[in-house]
Amino acid sequence: MTDGSPATARPPIAPPAALTDPERLRALADTGLEAAPDEAFDRFARLVSDLLDVPVALVSLVSADRQFFPGAVGLPEPWSERRQTPLSHSFCQHVVDIEAPMVLPDARLYPRVRDNLAVEGLGVVAYAGMPLTDLAGRVLGSLCAIDNKPRAWSAAQLRTLADLAAACSSELRLRIALDGAQEARRRVVQAHERLELLAGVSETLAGTLDVGTALHRLAAAMVPLLADWCLLTLIGPTGLPREVVSVHRDPARAADVDRFGELLRTGLSPESSIRAVLRTGQPRLGSVASLADVTRGTTHPEMASIAGRLGIASYLSVPVRGVGGTVLGAITLVNGGQRQQFDDRDLLTAVDIGRRAGQAVGNSSMYGEQRHVAEVLQHSMLPRLPVVGQLELAARYQPAADRVEVGGDWYDAFVQPDGDVIVAIGDVAGHDIEAAATMGQLRNLVRGNAFGRPDAVGALLSNLDGAIRGLRLPIAATATLVRICPQVAGVHEVTWSNAGHPPALVVRVGGTVEALEAAPEPLLGLARPSPRTSQSTNLATGDTLLLYTDGLIERRDRSIDEGLAELVGRLTGVDTLPLDEVCDLLLASIGHREDDTALLAVRAR
């Protein structure tokens, strides 16, 4: 008895055309049955064997290239173990082809089947097969009775076999209906998940104005919910990829997917699907894909081998469109062989995500440009610090986090003709271009009002109040003005006046910190004519004077006094650090910046 090995196999015969009908094959797949025992269909096979008194009975389902038996009795080995045979051993394929019962008293006498390898390999001589159908009448296989000797099938036996086939067909239809219900349930769940994903995508993209952060968050949101791995590609001025974000559902594949994304930037061939999407703006769906698609679409041979490790069985690629429909990039989703192929529903979801991503990328790019302009404008308004032999100066300016507007914080330092050094810091109300313009006016007023005049700093601020009122400038600002006189016997005399600004701090040699506090005085621009006061202190060699704006100490979750106490604690003991390091340390301690921050530090030498 043969098992169909190449030594005994006969030349293959083309299968009947009915076997490859897509609708029939889809219904066959919907049964969920395979080449494995199923108790319900084994029961049908036993009934056929008992009621018709045959040694072999089969529930045989026929695909495009094989037949398999969820129900079987009496099969010889090795077929009993395998539960399937190639079509070269199939009589049931002819039942599918003719869509009618096939009854053969002696198969060896019928040209259609006499050369079939089942005659020799399975001992099929007498055969009676009844069609097994789905609700649409498509024949999926056969319920068959087989004898190893010639047999005259009686009408009662054939009627019994037909009744059992009808019952067996009902069971198949139930399996198909169950699979359909499960598929419908899966689709409902998928639709719900996609709606949640789209809502989450909008929230994810709205949560940041940084392009790189937005792309990484978007990739993480799509994998593994929509795909096994994905590539987010942004193009440069030449239309070719300039940035690629790649993510795989398996963390162990992170190095592979990162390498694939790195090569993709320069490795797309003219036949690449991604390149076609970037060029035309039209989405592409590859329901069935293989490594051949990767090889054809890339110029780096390494990419195909990496894709083999990552897994590719289907893909889709959609454009990322900006304002006016401009293609900014592409989203490519890839599934391996263990996952369902992409379909039109997946494509529509991805197109929607691409549209939302395009809006976010466009907003981020616009924000980046505006922020760059704002920062350039802000820094252009901040002065260069003078070089003074007996003093070391350092300054910093840092805008609020995630804010495009130019702020009103400022500082200044300049040397008087007599050698005194004037330093100042201030904060104009507001965080917009008007505040910046006002800040520029105020800084220039401070310089013009103080330069070359020996007046006390309190008097200078009083004159400044008068200038603001006389010129009718809409200025409301805090400020601190300081005059530092050249040292005498190793000590610098410091006089200061404060117009509603946070108190300056002095870090003494040895690490102690003093706050330069006095009775509060009104903001600039709001005061009625009244003289302002001047206060004095000294700076010994190594002492540091720190001027700052309220962005350094003010938080929504605490009072200014608490912020000031924290700043004093942070400054304790920093007298041994270089001045630039002190400034950087203070800025780094802010965390999320809720307001602009300016610092000006002066150390006596």
Q: Residue-averaged pLDDT, rounded?
A: 87
Instruction: Using the coordinates above, name the CATH class of the largest domain.
Output: Alpha Beta
CATH architecture of the largest domain: 4-Layer Sandwich
Instruction: Kindly report the spatial arrangement of strands forming the biggest sheet.
Output: 3-2-1-6-5-4
What is the count of structural domains?
3
Shape annotation = rod-shaped
The stretches of 5 or more residues where confidence is low (pLDDT under 50) are 1-10
CATH topology of the largest domain: Phosphatase 2c, domain 1
List how many beta strands DSSP finds. 21
Alpha-carbon Rg, integer: 42 Å
The DSSP helix count reads 16
Going by CATH, the homologous superfamily of the largest domain would be PPM-type phosphatase domain
> Level of helix content?
25-40%
The secondary structure category is alpha+beta
End-to-end separation: 106 Å
Give the strand content. Answer: 15-25%
Major sheet characteristics: 6 strands, antiparallel
